[in-house]
Design brief:
alpha+beta, about 35% helix, 3-stranded antiparallel β-sheet, oxidoreductase (chains A, B, C, D), 4-stranded mixed β-sheet, about 15% strand, Four Helix Bundle (Hemerythrin (Met), subunit A), 9 helices, paralog of FGE (formylglycine-generating enzyme), 2 domains, DinB-like (chains A, B, C, D), about 375 residues, 11 strands, globular, homotetramer, Ergothioneine biosynthesis protein EgtB (chains A, B, C, D)
């Protein structure tokens, strides 16, 4: 596939995800961590305009200089930004304006690609496409949050169905010893997966299947949310302050558990994997079960021996730099390193992850209290 | 004009105000005091549906029972409500849905009116129309806030022009004595304007013109925002906490004062009345000038002797019940009485006020720190 | 009594109030509105040092220049101040240090008084003594709060007893007409009681007795705290946010109502007047009773016809300037005027008020949500 | 040394630390992380009373059942607790009361020790003594905060001097390979130091001296606090929100840097190690220097080759359980495990650490934004 074809495929996929939305759905931001879909459409476009067109395409004319202010995210090196919680206050540019901007930039990119970009620029392209794929995943999270927190519980797509992934229940055992982790080979990876290095692991067992809704319900019914012994001190404060009693999107209606899905509100499917739990909940569940969560290295070493990809999986590991990690210079260097404190690593992939985007060395990360992303629980001991 | 004609006129005017909006403009809520225009469209409809159709129109079928939850405002007697700051999180019902709801209710209303409603219901109708006119005014405030706080400063309507009202500069004198205030006659008024009663006024002087931008600029240039002596203690905290240095919508761009208007950003017009000042600022300005604001009674007694209507005018008076005031029973009774604490009375009308909506006995009220509504300053001494 | 004798009497009374405290009680500040007793001792001393000794006593040597920073309250003209909520963080100066400071200033004052101060300075003295009396009253409020919010419920003084004031239950009627209100005569009064002026009152009835605990209990038992109809909108938010279900210091222990008093925790005395209610509660009670609170003018006009002084009494009136009110120049001018927004007037006096401090024209004021001061309810209709 | 002698020594040391305080210093809590010294005195006593006397000493009579409520810290299993930020609101029990309580418990302990406690109870004793030593260290932090944030800058002890520890500037190199970390042997250690296990380390260099004030000043003077590139994203928010421009206790007075020490305010000593920096600052400094902080394993493996103990040292490592870690049952089990999220490991010891309390396997931990404890910076690369 040529770079232009790859570009087209990825860009089109973003628009396909949004094709089920009403104009109004593009605009709102119900909480700080959610961005309006309109912003994702504009921001992924701004990325290509800023780091490729403005930097390398001679004679390129800005679409609108004010858009840098509106669609920048956290790239401190490229000027003042709209503070993050303000995104949902902006009715302009309209959805149509943003799609026009997207079209304008796409056309310029295609022209630019005809010139045959240098290897250095090709690398930036690949980063930009992976960046856009990350925002495709965020689009699913954010859209689900926006519709799933609306009192009318509208469906995103009544025909939506999750990919099927087969799992074998049970545990596999890994021997003590020195293992290598981290990315290897010539394929694209993010800077946080480099460099490959040795780690020493004690012997451990890791589950080949994720925890199901039925299993999680046992934890709820046995009073797990009321017993501080299973929780970190900060987790317990979080449970109490926010009155947490079940995963996000679970609703107990007249004694029956329901679950908001992208198809709308449905009775809880007991055999599905539990989703939308925070690290705090995953840890408390494991603790109640007398087990624990795997570390990211334990996960990576065992990952070839089970099927993964239903949900992101919380690990016990904090998100920290690998030995020898160093930031790329300039704005691109802000990509990962600046988040390496107070977050937890997640491994795997979810139904919202674009096909082929993840891999066994992929390091996703979120704060331990978050759960609007598609996460599940794998146990270790 | 028949009731049906009056109904049609008022309802159409709401839609006309919104005719300049993009779909996205209907949805956002940049601060708690601003409501999304979509909500105003739905709420004014909900008012007629709830208090007239459901209560009096036999066989009326709810458009959608969930809408009560979405479009109720503060009427505690008609069930749980969406907490106010959440309005801007709702992408559904869409703008189109809301206009369909509006159409559905309008049709039912016209049918109901054919039946010849009782005087009691007619009274409710008139209340509903005055209620809708109040929301028309709020629509202007909220739209101006939404567009005027967008970094692109879009115009609401490039052809917008304010009504012209002639003023004679100077002061008139009113003698000491007993005066009557409050509404009299058969015309509609809100419950807070009743009952007419006597007050004793000391002699006073009151200005026949509002303070201009040029005059207010002198206050700014002389350091008024930096000198605590002109401010209430709470006002001074407000100035410091929010870094207030000028009226809302004023922007100093490269040393030149600009003003966001409904036509977009413009150089400041020095001869216009100052607008968008809080009570705190109005008081501080008067204090700096060695004068004071009039009380609401002083305003009412003098109001026939000057032209008013350019802007609402802060008075020194707190919003309190008139002697003999009592709340109407039921939800309608919540209309005014429950707000009679911690607010200030404003008198007059503004360019956003529907024609014929206000009168000299009209009592508008806002918290003293607010200024997104169209307010100005009249001095007394 | 000479000025020196009056000075001695007032200053000694402050120390007597504190004589029941432990050193630790002088230091803490459990909420922002409460000041540590140590601070009152120092602040009242700082007042005499700053406005009299430093201003008029030639050759006076500051006790410690840093104390201005520590003991200033809200007088913006005399330099930066410790922000108010920080007072409880200061372990130094110690209680002993503060009493030494007090002694030093007292000695200088006595020397200064031998010189025979000018009438202007005498006036400042009288203001300072009235100021100290206000802090004596606050000391009672603050001490009661500090001890009454301690889980050990220590008594302030096991022998403490409230002064007895006889009341005749019933209502008296006042005719419609013009009345004069405000202070008159040569005696001391605060600037907010001037100038005497005419007001027009409608006919009204006013109770000659305060509401009792027994009566208030009926309001509680009939569900008054659960029914929004009796409450202002802001009051209802306050009730919900703070889970208010009874007056401050009431504790329901195993089904029996108790009341923390300056003698410690006691079973509720049903015949006593209810105390420690906010304006919001006083208004809701009156509303439930089908009555209302008097205005400050109604209170003042009727006050000679009943005994008052058991508790401060909330009025319906907002705290606003009288006609012709103007601030004194300089720091002293900040005394009252800057608080004239968002507060309610209270009339009367309480058991914490120094004898002779109040009068029928006295205007006390607090925010409507506060209730740590000694307040009760008088009804009107 | 017998257990009774060890007990006496440790308990006396706590009292010695407090011997420089005024009564008032025992009471205040200027921020949530600081506890009033009075509380430390009571809480360490409560620990012995609750976990030893009440549990094992037949016939022991509670000193005061309410004290459990007042002196419990975070032990959720032993009943409701005073919420942490409330500790500074409590004037009672007085300092004298608390010392009496301490005496009462000490006497009971000595009696109990005559009975010859079981090995299980001896273990609890040793835990209790180590617990008290941790509070001795906290006492230094909290006292320094209380006095160092007072506008009078009182000295804790004018004769106070820090222990001298010699350092050789330079870097040592450690080879790649498998190392063992964690506690070994029969001596006391906390549960978080167990169990000893293998780790794989890449080759690294680690400094043999801590960063000095002079070196840190270069970072400040080169604009380090103004350049986001050196900071984590959360750190940058912290810097901006709190206007951080220097370590805690540094004051720039008329262009000269001063430092509040336990002797009072002094000119900054350039050759001393920098102290009172957050993890965020330590990381930013290392980043500016083109280096990094060591991991806790790197530190432990190298620690025999340099002198440590001047200050706690931030490591890059998150505070996580060692392989095989499991919580002790009951309240004691809450000791460490529940904090293993969102915190950073510190290694070494500080001048506030009791002699013999720390060791090379000791794992201290704090949130990355904190800096009132005695911390410094050691670089690695």
């Amino acid at each position: 596939m040529t770079l232009a074809e790859r570009y087209k495929t990825v860009r089109r996929r973003t628009e396909d995800i949004c094709s089920h939305l009403q104009t109004e759905d593009y605009v709102v931001q119900p909480v700080g961590d959610v961005s309006p879909p309109k912003w994702h459409i504009g921001h992924t476009t701004w990325f290509f305009e800023t780091f490729i067109l403005k930097a390398y395409f001679m004679g390129y004319q800005d679409y609108n200089p004010d858009y840098n202010y509106v669609f920048n995210s956290y790239y401190e090196t490229v000027g003042a930004r709209v503070i993050r919680t303000d995104r949902g206050n902006l009715s302009r540019p309209t959805v149509l304006d943003v799609y026009r901007y997207r079209e304008y930039v796409d056309e310029a990119i295609y022209k630019f690609l005809c010139e045959g970009p240098s290897p250095e620029v090709e690398e930036l392209f690949v980063l930009g496409l992976n960046h856009e794929e990350q925002h495709q995943e965020l689009l699913y999270y954010d859209i689900k949050y926006i519709l799933g927190h609306n009192p009318l519980f509208p469906a995103y797509n009544p025909q939506y169905s999750s990919p099927k992934i087969e799992e074998q229940p049970g545990f596999i055992s890994i021997n003590e010893g020195v293992y290598e982790v981290g990315h290897t080979g010539e394929d694209f990876c993010f800077d946080n997966e480099l460099s490959r290095h040795k780690v020493y692991l004690n012997a451990y067992h890791i589950s080949t299947a994720l925890v199901t809704n039925a299993e999680y319900l046992e934890f709820i019914n046995s009073g797990g949310y009321q017993d501080f012994r299973y929780w970190h001190a900060e987790a317990w404060d979080w449970v109490k302050t926010n009155n947490i009693t079940a995963p996000m999107y679970w609703h107990n209606i007249d004694g029956e558990w329901h679950n908001y899905t992208l198809r709308g509100l449905e009775p809880l499917h007991l055999h599905d994997s539990v989703q939308h739990v925070s690290f705090y909940e995953a840890y408390a569940y494991a603790s109640w079960k007398g087990m624990r969560l795997p570390t990211e290295y334990e996960w990576e070493v065992a990952a070839t021996q089970f099927n993964w990809g239903k949900s992101w999986e919380w690990t016990e590991s904090a998100y920290l730099p690998y030995p020898g990690f160093s930031k790329a210079p300039g704005a691109i260097g802000e990509y990962n390193g600046k988040f390496m404190v107070n977050q937890k690593v997640l491994r795997g992939a979810s139904e919202a992850t674009p096909p082929g985007h993840s891999r066994t060395t992929y390091r996703n990360f979120f704060h331990p209290n978050l759960r609007w992303h598609f996460t599940g629980i794998r146990l270790a001991q």
